[in-house]
Prior knowledge:
It is a single chain. This protein is 38% helix and 16% strand. It has 11 helices and 10 strands. Helix 10 (281-292) crosses helix 11 (296-309). The longest helix is centred in the C-terminal third of the chain and has 14 residues, at 296-309. Mean pLDDT is 87; it is low at 1-24.
Amino acid sequence: MIGDSRPAAEDMTPPEVQSTPGPGARPGARPVPAGLHLIATPIGAARDITLHALDLLAGADVLAAEDTRTLRKLMEIHGLSPGARPLIAYHDHNGARARPGLMRALAEGRSVVYASEAGTPLVADPGYQLVRAALAEGHPVHAAPGPSAVLAALAVSGLPTDRFLFAGFPPASGAARARWLAELAPVQATLVLYESPKRVHKLLTESMKHLGNGRQAAVCRELTKRFETVTRGTLAELAEAFAGKPVKGEIVVVVDRPDAAPAGVEDLEEALRAALARVSLKDAVAEVAAALGVPRREVYQAALKLAGER
């Protein structure tokens, strides 16, 4: 940009980074300031890791990871090794036990790196409580941004990106999933969901009912990996495409927002008549309310009126 007088990248390093490397750092590694550093790791291609993240992995005093085997392998690919430094597992099942040790390291003024198994820490990831604890005790918390399945899927989906909601994994039970989808139906934002490959077809069929058959969506599989595929279409088309189809790999489902245009009385009645010809009144109300973004109570009253006229 003309007139942009920002310093060169090497000069933009905060002054605190100019401290000497900690005792556990690799010889020749860049110094890492004390505090908790969150590293985004590749979701597929190992070369997607940032140079900043590699510097942190090379120079930090303590390494923590959701999966230590995954982090060790990633480091080996890039010519790094934990060496004599602690490499600590920190995940959903041991967080309460592992957290005190990491907090002691921070209290001693050491640099601690935390890496998720894949993607950005704290996004569908167990690092939240660690960050909360570090902040509560006044320790610096930094992020080295990078790979994210949420953003990668959003980018390739072809759906609006100006406003989106990451909703995570759907509940496993049927009733809870139905309530969860019904709550998402009127949200005026592109939806980004994670799902198990074994349940992706079920999610698509249930989404048809609660979000509307005609909503545009994309099923993103194995993003950045060798067998990456992105299948786009309406929820109805995707449900048909994945029916009886064995699915493997990591899945992200992206769903377009509902039609923002308010539904008129004629639109509502037409949609209800079509739905009532196929399904029960209860199911018709749920389907139309989701498809048109109209409050369920309003749709229910209109459905009762139509049912009385028949």
